[in-house]
Amino acid sequence: MREKKVSQEPQFAAFVGIDWADRKHVWCLQEAGSAKSESGELEHKVESVEAWVVNFVNDSTIVPSR
């Protein structure tokens, strides 16, 4: 009988939590291995969420370079 190789857990750069509500969204971001976290609110608009994601990706040292 052959043994299956167990894949390793992926390495995460950060953890993001979003409380998705009907009027505003609250977010929390914590870099992996850090005790510090950031949080904020977003309006319930596609443009607001998109701008937050684009800003995070462009300005973050957490996101690995492509």
Cα distance spanning the termini: 40 Å
- Give the averaged pLDDT, no decimals: 85
Envelope shape:
elongated
Radius of gyration: 16 Å
pLDDT below 50 for ≥5 consecutive residues: which ranges? none
Instruction: Give me the count of strands.
Output: 3
Number of helices: 1
How much helical structure, as a percent, in the residues?
Answer: 10-25%
The strands making up the biggest β-sheet line up spatially as: 1-2-3
Given the helix and strand composition, which structural class is it? alpha+beta
Order of helices and strands: EEEH
What this model shows, in words?
By secondary structure, this protein is α+β, with helices and mostly antiparallel strands. The protein has a domain at 14-59. The chain is 21% helix and 32% strand. The protein has one helix at 46-59; strands at residues 14-20, 24-31, 38-43. It has a three-stranded antiparallel beta sheet, covered by helices on one side.
List keywords for this structure.
alpha+beta; 66 residues
What secondary-structure arrangement, pairings included, does this model have?
Layout: E1 14-20, E2 24-31, E3 38-43, H1 46-59
Q: How would you summarize this macromolecular structure in one to three sentences?
A:
It is built from one helix and three strands.
